[in-house]
């Protein structure tokens, strides 16, 4: 039975990892009903839950869940001690506490953006949670912890995303980052819409000066009659040499 439960849990966790981007450490929101059931069945939540989910976990609760246990009977004192050991996440009801079921629903919102697991034994809360897509549910039955299979609302949501009718959370985050890079998000548009008021100040005296025109460099002009002459060397004619030789020789005369 233990091997079958772990296989079922592994399959369910991989479903939420792939379709809803759940990552370790898993955040487990626990209410008083779950801690009371764990106390009765002698279940060590801190030791057994990471083994069952096969990963690191962060056990947490809310201030409203602790206040609810304080107002109830003294038999729930042990459950309160268990919850006090976990991290307390801030909720919207710090000043005016509300029932734990209402507080947990407000922590999830409409899409469970913080990827919480919910551990509860409250049947009414479980029905309400199954209407929100992407919420893994944990409960205790027969002295064992069980991770519930995905609800019909969750399966329909995944089917709609695969058909292209809806956008998955990972696609929404990537679209948001692209919008921020391109300056199309609301924050960037608000920043662009707000214009800074410039303080009135005297003009810069250097800017009032007229710009001096730089003189253009003039190239020297060539004279019209100037042309390059080629130097030629005249060679002496051999006839002149012959005449000098005849005059010097008397026999020829």
UniProtKB/TrEMBL annotation:
Q: Name one Pfam family in it.
A: Fcf1
| Domain of life of the source | Eukaryota
What organism is the protein native to?
Cyprinus carpio carpio
The name this protein goes by in its record: rRNA-processing protein UTP23 homolog
- Member of which family? Belongs to the UTP23/FCF1 family. UTP23 subfamily.
Role this protein plays:
Involved in rRNA-processing and ribosome biogenesis.
Record keywords: Nucleus, Ribosome biogenesis, rRNA processing
Which portions of the chain have biased composition (kind: Basic residues)?
228-238
Q: Which residues form the UTP23 sensor motif region domain?
A: 194-213
Q: Where is the composition biased (Basic and acidic residues)?
A: 178-191
What processes in GO biological process is this protein linked to?
rRNA processing
Sorted alphabetically, which CDD domains does this protein's record hold? Answer: PIN_Fcf1-Utp23-H (cd09866)
- Spell out the subcellular localization from the entry: Nucleus, Nucleolus
Q: Record's InterPro entries? A: Fcf1/UTP23, PIN-like_dom_sf, UTP23_sensor
């Amino acid at each position: 039975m233990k091997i079958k439960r772990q296989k079922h849990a592994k399959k369910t966790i991989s479903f939420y990892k792939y379709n809803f981007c759940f990552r370790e450490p898993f955040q487990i929101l626990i209410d008083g009903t779950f801690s009371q059931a764990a106390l009765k069945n002698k279940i060590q939540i801190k030791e057994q839950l990471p083994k069952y989910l096969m990963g690191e976990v962060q056990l947490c609760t809310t201030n409203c869940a602790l206040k609810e246990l304080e107002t109830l009977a003294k038999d729930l004192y042990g459950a309160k001690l268990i919850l006090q050991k976990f991290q307390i996440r801030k909720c919207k009801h710090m000043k005016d506490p509300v029932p734990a079921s209402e507080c947990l629903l407000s922590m999830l919102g409409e899409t469970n953006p913080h990827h919480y697991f919910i551990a509860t034994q409250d049947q009414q809360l479980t029905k309400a949670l199954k209407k929100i897509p992407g919420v893994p549910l944990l409960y205790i039955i027969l002295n064992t912890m069980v991770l519930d299979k995905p609800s019909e609302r969750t399966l329909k949501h995944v089917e709609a995303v695969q058909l292209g009718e809806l956008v998955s959370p990972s696609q929404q985050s990537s679209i948001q980052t692209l919008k921020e890079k391109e300056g199309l998000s609301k924050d960037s548009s608000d920043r662009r819409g707000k214009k800074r008021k410039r303080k009135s100040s005297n003009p810069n005296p250097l800017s009032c000066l007229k710009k001096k025109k730089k003189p253009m460099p003039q190239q020297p002009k060539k004279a019209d009659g100037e042309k390059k002459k080629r130097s030629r060397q005249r060679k002496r004619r051999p006839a002149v040499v012959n005449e000098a030789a005849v005059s010097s020789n008397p026999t020829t005369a």
